[in-house]
Amino acid sequence: MEDYIIEMLHITKEFPGIVANDDITLRLKKGEIHALLGENGAGKSTLMSVLFGLYQAEKGEIRKNGQVIKINNPNDANAFGIGMVHQHFKLVEIFSVLENIILGVEPNTLGFLEKKEARKKVVNLCEQYGLKVNPDAIVESISVGMQQRVEILKMLYRDNDILIFDEPTAVLTPQEIDELMEIMRGFAKEGKSILFITHKLNEIMAVADRCTVLRKGKYIGTVDIKDTTKEELSRMMVGRDISFSVEKEEASPGEVVLSVRDVTVPSKIHKNNAVKNVSFDVRAGEIVCLAGIDGNGQTEFVSALTGLEKMSGGKVTLCGKDITKANIRTRSKTGMSHIPEDRHKHGLVLEYTLEENMVLQRYWEPAFQKKGFIRRHAIRQYADRLIKQYDVRSGQGPITIARSMSGGNQQKAIIAREIDKQHELLVAVQPTRGLDVGAIEYIHKQLVARRDANKAVLLVSLELEEVMNVSDRILVMYEGEIVGELDPKTTTVEELGLYMSGAKRNTLMPKKKEESSANE
């Protein structure tokens, strides 16, 4: 008999209207990296939440080293050496990084908080695992990627030996992903056991020893990674063959839809500007990708472009109208759709139903209200259509509370809403973050379809493969400046990486071209 450190036997977990886990058995060996793969809403996060004590299963049992254990809450899980990095971070935003890491296991003497030793341990962990983060930074002021590191450090601080990673790379840059893969391998060599939820087949092939596949809440099978392929795993996951390449015709750019001139955005973290004199155009019928390593000004630029933050200088024109100082609704009515980076903070009202979220930007239109009264039946019909078209899975359909949905299905709901409403410019920030391969394939087709319908698409992505496959033109942002304009057909991933790291930049940027032509 195999030696398993954790066994989840015949686990069944139900929610109103849905069986999230239907008689699932999962076994984890000591010192292995075990991937958990499945479509959005397949039940992966639910299963891991049962193991971590956030949910209680209706049926089944959990064993550690062959002994049946009862996990009533996350404190019990920690006592058994089980830690979890959540897909949606469990952080207190107004606390510092250090306070979040020690929360719940605060070192104290006679009831007085002792931070000095805790701080030393956190700094040592940062250095040991290459997770650079400022212990004194307030969580709400740091990037999503940094918050991810805080979650990992919380787990390491508690000396857990069974580590659950729920979509840990969804918000990381390619370089950070490579570093995390190395960290995970190091954990396994130390004897720690890892359960690793991901949609990214390349990561599974690179780092996992075995993989268990779930589909619609049911167990499909467990395979050794050395004996399988990406294609076989995707087939097990979605039940059909998936195309990993983006098929599109040559772009035919038309009129300028978005014009950005000398945009400057102040930083909230330091005295320097986060975005410095950025200028470019996006035309109808093209996908322009803003690429760069996380933290180089893309977030601040998009916040200014979409009206979430104020810019300190520059001008933005959309469809020929100056929207530099326009509010968000005006930008939306002028023709801007926005798939935001942070779906919880800027994409959804989590306590609203799915159908209410679907009309957040349109509820005042005649189709959805009459004389100031909401037309509930019209909203229900509209939501039903989008749910079906975009395969948004939820336990109670349009009346499901958004917070209760899986991250991937929340993302699909936002994408459905933003693509379906009238727009001339689609600003898509990491639109496939947290989506499975089937959904990614569908979203990429939707972006290309927007382009082919003569709409302008500004894609902001950290995924190099997505940048190279989907975009018609690549603009690279480094330290708040556009340092390169590249053609994906003639450049390489390696060259793109050099621009992203600041090691290379165009000697003649678009703005300078305009100035030189004006002087001739």
Task: Walk across the major sheet and give the strand order.
Answer: 6-9-10-3-11-12
Q: What is the tally of beta strands?
A: 24
* CATH architectural group of the largest domain: 3-Layer(aba) Sandwich
**Shape verdict:** globular
What's the helical proportion of residues? 25-40%
CATH superfamily of the largest domain: P-loop containing nucleotide triphosphate hydrolases
Quick one: CATH class of the largest domain? Alpha Beta
Number of domains: 3
The class by helix and strand makeup works out as alpha/beta
- What is the rounded distance between the termini? 81 Å
Radius of gyration: 24 Å
Average pLDDT number: 88
Give the number of helices: 18
CATH topology of the largest domain: Rossmann fold
Largest sheet: 6 strands, mixed
Low-confidence stretches: 510-520
Question: Which band does the percent of strand residues land in?
Answer: 25-35%
How would you characterize this protein structure?
By secondary structure, this protein is of the alpha/beta class. It has 3 domains: 4-238, P-loop containing nucleotide triphosphate hydrolases (Rossmann fold), CATH 3.40.50.300; 246-335 and 423-520, P-loop containing nucleotide triphosphate hydrolases (Rossmann fold, 3-Layer(aba) Sandwich), CATH 3.40.50.300; 344-421, no CATH class. It contains 18 helices and 24 strands. A 6-stranded mixed sheet has the order 6-9-10-3-11-12, with helices on both faces. A hairpin with a 2-residue loop joins β16 and β17 (321-322). The longest helix is centred in the middle third of the chain and has 16 residues, at 174-189. The radius of gyration is 24 Å and the shape is globular. Residues 510-520 have low confidence and may be disordered.
